[in-house]
Model the fold of this input.
Amino acid sequence: MEITREEIMHIAKLANLKIEDSETQKYVNNMKEILNFANTVNEVDTDNIDTSIHAVETFNRFRKDEIHEFGDRDILLANAPEQENGMFKIPKVI
Amino acid sequence: MELYELTVHELVDKLDKKEITITDIAKSYSERIESKEKDVEAFVTVTAEDAVNKAKKIEEEKNAGKIDSKLAGIPIGIKDNICVKGVKTTCSSKMLENFVSPYNATVIDKINNENMVVLGKLNMDEFAMGASTEYSYFKKTKNPWDLNRVPGGSSGGSAAAVAANMVPWALGSDTGGSIRQPSSFCGVVGLKPTYGLVSRYGVVAFASSLDQIGPITKDVTDSAMLLNLISGYDEKDSTSLDIEKKDYTKSLVNDVKGLKIGLPKEYFGEGIDAEVKKAVMEVAKKYEEMGAIVKECSMSVADYALATYYIIACAEASSNLGRFDGIRYGYRTKEFSNLKDIYINSRTEGFGEEVKRRIMLGTYVLSSGYYDAYYKKAQKVRSVVKKEFDKLFSEFDVLLTPTSPTVAFNIGTRSNNPLQMYLADICTVSVNIGGLPAISVPCSLNSEGMPIGFQLIGNHFSEDTLFKTAYTYEQNTNFRENKPKFVGARY
Done:
């Protein structure tokens, strides 16, 4: 299992993370070791076996489509790094 | 004997007999936290000062007949990934250092309904990713049996606080062993309930198909009492199961005659410390003496469970942690000129190394070209794990294994080797993959005086069988007579 510096940079981009050049080699080494270990799953015979998304099979459970007001807008906004006029504030996008 | 040395059922008993008051309990724990926290460092946030005032109020109301809960005034510690309204929920991360919970987790609503007292929020590995609590952004919690060692993780603060008598019981969360392994390291009882039995509403998600909240307690009776309180259907968690509620204290029966116990041989093989193996085999012998039928069995897929677990858990984590973007809550970078900068820099500066490593791994196994080889394959192996468990539970009532391959290790010995740290979960992850319940019970000390725990795994919703099996062992043995050197008291 080989993993390249370019792949690490690509994955970091997908994950919205920045990896400094000085850290890339460490990530390459760690990821290689862990992925080699993870790759052992391919030794298990899974012919004719379906995937399981959950441990306990559950089915769609429907509820009434009713509005429940949370009620405390201020307490939610209080955690925002920046807010204005009761809204989350971000830099100009367009 | 000090009040903080008692179990919760002993405290309840004394309250009933009016030998002690609710305020006495709160004061005892406040003082205990005050004197021990500097050494154990189990708490991220202490709310104990508040706790004494709250206890006084509860006492007045109880005396006035306004409250009739037996658990009124009983203190509890909460892992810092479970939301308590108005209190910080940090997940031991810089990302959530200043996040104040806007609402209560469902388990906290249940605790508040009983008028219990939250003593504080307990340290953990950042976002519950780790097996030693060393990956906390804030502090390294110490093991009360030896302050040079880790308490295990990720619920290390919860387990250490219970073992050091700083809380009478605590809530943890378990995604791959995060309740059971630290309980084993600290010599306390930890239960991971069946997936869907306890609502996950208000616990910060790590791997949604694996996470469960559960109790960490001094003994099995307290574990059953706390599960009674926190279990039950919740419409706010779409994976919570609508099943009849059981009274688990009814399963506290001293009898294992005829109970069929399987010993899966893969859990006793290479990588399991010889002293741990010997201790757990002695537990098996004890069960035999008490009338259980103990037989070796095999779970051939067990050797692949850890790899399967890390693929699934990291994949789900990379998706769940996508929400941390520096906009609505959490850390925001100072360095930005546009929106994309906010996302990337906030995440890069706000997450610790292990969290970033797992997000990277998860993103990799879900990415185009690798999805089938890793993620899809792991989901298939998950089906195999479930099938093998189903087969074993058609023959056995419970499975007996070590909880952890070793006793608590020294601080700093594994934190730089991710794969070595992952191996600490080898005995516990299959249970989460299968959604099963499992309990870790302390059984003995190794030659260095460190606790060893054994794990009992049951079929879905067989917590009652687990409690009965664990309780019988506890009633016929005497682990709790051992005293952690540092604690200087039984717990």
